[in-house]
Amino acid sequence: MTSLNIVILAAGQGTRMRSDRPKILHTVGGKPLLQHVYERARELNPETTAIVYGHGGEQVRQRFPDWSAHWVEQSPQLGTGHAVQQALPVLRDDALILVLYGDVPLLQRPPLERLLSVAATDTLALLTVDMNDPTGYGRIVRDADGRVVRIVEEKDAAAEEKRITEVNTGILAVPGFKLKTWLDRLDNDNAQGEYYLTDVIAMAATEGMMIETVSAPPNDVAGVNNKRQLAALERIYQSRQAEDLLDRGVTLRDPARFDLRGDLEAVGRDVEIDVNVLLEGTVRLGHRVKIGPQVVIRDAVIGDDVEIMSHSVIEQAEIGARSRVGPFARIRPETVLAEEAHVGNFVEIKKSTLGGGTKVNHLSYIGDSEVGAGVNVGAGTITCNYDGANKHKTVIEDGAFIGSDTQLVAPVKVGRDATIGAGSTITHDAPAEKLTLSRSKQFTIEHWQRPTKQR
Ligand code: UD1
Ligand code: CA
User: What is the Å distance from ligand 2's center to 223 Cα?
Assistant: First the structure.
């Protein structure tokens, strides 16, 4: 067969999720279930991809405006056979049709490729799995010679059929022209009153089609019907990612306590990640980056030899080479630290740039600021960037020294190599190389007496 057409079934209700959100929009590794399936489908270079949706309708479609897929609505939902029927108008007779499930997100390429390689004009290929407890699944019924003759659903199965442990994953590959004729003949004369896609197996067998099974690893074909399964799949997904990182040479102190919800686009050599680290969105880590425990990094670029100490949160930021961040630091969006910057405990930095070697070591807020190189910002320094209506900018030029507990009331500029005396409230620009301070004079009251408690 010349081309591949893929149908993703995603119209199911998902009642057991007990959620207002459509099931396939729930996430594994930060990515919607349906997106995992769609991306895997695209890797197979199909000519057409059809997504059968129903529950959650427009909400599902609108979530993925850029996908090149036919969105096919199935309403009402009368079963898996009925679902595939809805997609027939966009599928080609001379194509090989691959059916995937939108709620089976962990399917890897090898079993799919095997499935596609055995399917042919005269061969239907079924992805099956052997289960210790097959309860709830469709069973693969074989004849005395071991040939597949039909699939029987749990609710329609006789007692001896229920003992079969080889079950249907629902994923199959079949020639389009055959599928069309079989689906035309489907009925809903069964325990659930549904049009079962699985009934085409008996039709194929009766016609003398070859039915080949390909067996899949159980984790690959695990589906999501409830939050327990969603949590279990998240674990499988995370441990696969952790193993992949270990293989790439990353040191994970405990692979079971590492989460990546997104893409680690680049990772250097000798990176060390301590326990309970969460990476989200798109993250790049340079060589020899060390990440301490309980750190969250989202959409950030971390340069070579950077150390992020425990309990720090970094979001939409760039951390220059050899910088040190944390413990307990918060780096907010649009922040860029140049090389060898130090950001210490209880420091928040937002939409600011820090030049090379600049230090903000303790208890400070730097927002909407342009801080030069070699600046020392003393403990408790606050840029007062907000006047209640608008945000204003603070500029601190190279080599400046800001004494502890200074408020810089923006817009304001501190010149090159300027010194600000501790405890100052700076409301006007401070000139370069000079000492500027605003501080009331210290005095002592000689004969003052401390009050005593009244009787
Ligand atoms: C189906 C199979 C069963 C298999 C099991 C594997 C049938 C009749 N049975 O059973 O043999 O062991 O999957 O998990 O095919 N869907 C629609 N529209 C519908 C019904 C379902 O799009 O009208 C979609 C669902 O969103 C889901 C998939 O099809 O992605 C499977 O539906 P589900 O109800 O979970 O099928 P099962 O009864 O579990
Ligand atoms: Ca299911």
Answer: 6
Nearest-CA neighbor of 230 among 330, 105, 345?
A: 105
Tokens of 11: 């119209």
Q: What is the largest CA-CA distance in the chain?
A: 112
Q: Residues whose CB is under 5 A from ligand 2 (ion)?
A: 223
CB 223 within 8 A of CB 103: yes
Active site residue 362: yes
pLDDT digits (tens, 9 = 90+) for 119-169: 999 999 999 999 999 999 999 999 999 999 999 999 999 999 999 999 999
Residue 396: φ, ψ to 5°: -125, 115
Which domains, ranges and CATH numbers included, belong to the chain? Answer: 3-221 (3.90.550.10), 227-436 (2.160.10.10)
Q: What is the pLDDT of residues 193-230, one digit of tens each?
A: 999 999 999 999 999 999 999 999 999 999 999 999 99
Q: Which residues' Cβ are closer than 6 Å to ligand 1? A: 9-12, 52, 74, 77-80, 82-83, 101-103, 137-138, 151, 153, 167-170, 196-198, 223
Mean pLDDT of the chain: 97
pTM attached to this predicted model: 0.93
Closest atom of ligand 1 to CA, residue 168? 12
